[in-house]
Amino acid sequence: MKAVILAAGLGTRFKSEKPKVLHHILGKPMIWYVINAVRKGGIKDIAVVVGYKAEEVMETVGEEVNFYLQSNPKGGTAEAVLASIDFWRNEEDYLLVINGDSPLIKPETVKNMQRFLFMVEEYEKVKLGGVILTSFLSDPTGYGRVVKEEGTDRIVKIVEEKEASPEEKSIREVNGGVYMFYIPYLLEALFKIKPSEKTGELYLTDAVDYMVRKGYEIRSFQASEPTEILGVNTRWELSFAESIVKLKLIKYWAERGVTVHSPETVWIEPDVELEENVEIFPDVMLKGKTRIAKNTVIHKGSIIENSVIGENVNVYPFSYIKDSKVEKGAVVGPFSRIREQTVVGEKAEVGNFVEIKKSIISRGVKAKHLAYIGDAHVGKQVNISAGVVTANYDGKEKHKTFIGDNAFVGSNSLLIAPLSLGDFCYIAGGSVISKDIPSGALAIERSRLRILEGKGKKKLEK
Ligand code: UD1
Ligand code: CA
Prior knowledge:
By secondary structure, the chain is of the alpha/beta class. The protein has two domains: about 1-230, Spore Coat Polysaccharide Biosynthesis Protein SpsA, Chain A; about 255-445, Hexapeptide repeat proteins (UDP N-Acetylglucosamine Acyltransferase, domain 1, 3 Solenoid), CATH 2.160.10. The chain has ten helices and 39 strands. The chain is elongated.
């Protein structure tokens, strides 16, 4: 079976310059979820119909699908399907047609609908015109209403909200925008239906009416839950869809041995991977391709993006780790900032208001308060005291700092790069170090301390 995803519409109700299907849910464009559900539902041959800002949609979706252009993105959903006719017209099979704004569809549903068609053919010996995903909503406003033969799952027609009589509007069963149509019948129908007199659009749902009148049976297939068929037409529906996707993902991890406290406040994106016994506190965001190994705890308010966190790590509150690696047993935070291409080694401790960029922090290093380490290689067991700064930038270029194993860098030292400190170096607090220091040396750079007896009090009493 092939699939056509409709994504050409203007998305007027979104009030956005950006195509609706490119708006994000948990860091991924809405259409990514639809493509994913179709693929995981076992359908690999996919076409996406683009129209409004076609280039942008194609660029974001990438090359793994075929694209077809609907030249008039106001033409309606049937016109969108017709735009992709070269993709499917020669198949003697069913075609999955799915709205690009239905991100909550489950892969299992795509599979189950295929199974349903197979069963009907196998046991009832009936070739259906199609099967359509439907659901009963307490508020069906905005959706196409499904008119059925009473007491059966046979669909008579689908009436769009704008065309519906008050009586039809009271029907609570709605069209979920996921269809499997038998291609020869669909082809016939699409060439016969006429645009709506009210909107000028060619409705895909009018193909249903046509097929039924021709005697091609169309059945409804119940969604697993009403939210599955949510069509995202407004920003608020986007927020709603996102919170559902979010909680489902967290439930998935919970079932795999991850504890998440206050899940409604936690953000875990779809590409994140978590091992058993990870514990996540409120207001945490795990973004991009982050991986977290077992027994690690991420405390309140921390953000971790595209980073790999080892086993038994503690990330204390309000830390931000991006494009970096934290190895097992390390402690980060509270209030640490770990920037790109940093490795925090095993059992290292990075504390409050420490910023690290493009640096290797080796095993057992302690940098517990108020420091900036950039473009540096810090050896094993080094102590970086409060206020240490690597001056890595001279206004034009970035330079590197090497600190040997077991060195001690005292408080408020300024290390002017390029610079190399040997193993077991001792840098006295408050020093400005602008020359390499050999292994085992003590370096001190301070002006002489003067103590003028009584002078302070005098000054203050003036
Ligand atoms: C559509 C269905 C409605 C169903 C609902 C489910 C029709 C006529 N109506 O209504 O019965 O209950 O979905 O969510 O199909 N699109 C195009 N080209 C167009 C118009 C739309 O590609 O010319 C795309 C849109 O980008 C969108 C999808 O088709 O992804 C659905 O279009 P939309 O306008 O949102 O249809 P609804 O009014 O929600
Ligand atoms: Ca819609």
